[in-house]
Amino acid sequence: MAESFMISHGSGMTSARTRARLVERLRQQGIGDETVLAIIGQIPRHQFVDEALSHKAYDDTSLPIGFGQTISQPYIVARMSELAAQVPQRQQVLEIGTGCGYQTAVLAKLFKTVHSIERIGGLVRQTRERLSGLGIHNARLRHADGLPGLPELAPFDAIVITAAAPIVPENLSAQLSDGGRLIFPVGSQQQELRMIERRGQELFESRLEKVNFVPLLPGIA
Ligand code: SAH
User: 14-23, 107-116, 143-152, 173-182 — which is least confidently predicted?
Assistant: First the structure.
């Protein structure tokens, strides 16, 4: 019946079942960390995007979040989170590029404390409110240029950058704990996800996969 077709519109698109389908897709795409998958299965991604776009919140795509920025594609959030999760300790993580806070929320379930830096003041205010509304209280947000990191709070067990740096942000590897990982996209036209791992005084860099992020910009807005 035409009526029953209409009624289903808008209600089922943001449910636990829709999230379960997203989790299944991520598993097929090679995400193997069950803890990360379970977290993605719980976090209401539709509450991180504009209400008008909430029906698209569980598609594996990036979406606009205002201020000319985007929420990252679920696959890349899952990928960066599983790389960050595989560290010896999960005390504190630094995120650079808070945006709407979806990646922040995932990290907050994996680590004791998340420090997250965002250069756009309007996003910091919005996201702070959103996270506390969702009952996430172990994420500290800062309005600043994240590129220098947070030397006064270092070392971090993981550092995750969610905007593409033009060159490798080598300064940040000094803020990693032993066994810690720096996960970041680098490049301008062609971007690549990379990881720097600290073992004692040695650093190991790996090149992971092609990605597509908004650029890391200097200064605050
Ligand atoms: N983590 C977000 C992705 C946000 S997009 C998610 O879960 O979807 C990247 C964000 O990085 C944007 O909000 C942008 O404003 C921010 N950004 C860019 N350059 C920055 C810098 N130097 N310091 C801090 N944040 C920065």
Answer: 14-23
| Contacts (Cβ under 8 Å, ≥6 apart) of 203 | 173, 196, 197
160, two tokens = 């995750």
Alpha-carbon distance of 15 to 13, in angstroms, equals: 6
120-136: per-residue pLDDT in tens?
Answer: 999 999 999 999 999 99
With residues binned 3-state (H G I as helix, E B as strand, rest as coil), the percentages for the chain, rounded to 5, are 40, 25, 35
User: 12-211 architecture in CATH?
Assistant: 3-Layer(aba) Sandwich (3.40)
Is the Cβ atom of 118 under 6 angstroms away from ligand 1?
yes
What was the pLDDT predicted at 12?
63
Counting atoms of ligand 1 from 1, which one is nearest the CA of 77? 7
Give the residue carrying structure tokens 């073992």.
Answer: 199
Establish whether residue 69 lines the binding site of ligand 1, counting it when its CB lies within 6 angstroms of any ligand atom. Answer: yes
Distance 216 CA to ligand 1 centre (A): 7
Cα torsion through 47, 52, 58, 61, rounded to 10: -110
Question: Per-residue pLDDT tens for 136-172?
Answer: 999 999 999 999 999 999 999 999 999 999 999 999 9
Could you tell me where the DSSP H helices lie in the chain?
2-7, 16-28, 34-42, 74-85, 102-110, 121-133
Per the DSSP assignment, residues forming a β-bridge with 183 are 160, 195
